[in-house]
Amino acid sequence: MLQLRASSVADTHAIAAAVASLARAGDMILLAGEMGAGKTAFAQGFGRALGVEEPITSPTYTLVHSYDLPPSQRRARTLHHADLYRLERTTEVAELALAELAEFGGIVLIEWGDVVESTFGDHLTVLLSNVIDDDAGGEEADPAADELVSDSRRHVEIAGVGSSWAARWERIAWALEQFA
Prior knowledge:
With 180 residues, this protein is α/β, with parallel strands linked by helices. The protein is 29% helix and 25% strand.
């Protein structure tokens, strides 16, 4: 597991871009963390790194947003961004067919994916958590206090599950070394 620190939204975007540089078709990336911890910010940085030019927003109500990737980006055809926050049963998750979206040339980012992590095979988990003041003992941010959450530093933990991520682990660690 990698333990990282992001001191700004720009750092969160940079961490996401580094992960995106090593992502390929078929990858599932689960984004975890409390409300306001930076899951959508991570998705924005990830998408921009893959060449998505349209605004990336949280798919909380539509459940999945899909973005065609430019032809120059040959690692995958589509970025799918899902949000499982509103789903109550694992059958609802299965109906989204996220694994199939990955199988057909897509990369799938899943906000709140940790709640059903055991249903996915190989995947990367990115856990984001807000910290108001690292020097004052690392107190967690209050997700209800938007002004604190948006300005806070983030801890980012990244863990790979399965052989596909194990094969890329050293490159991921090297790409993210500056945030360790």
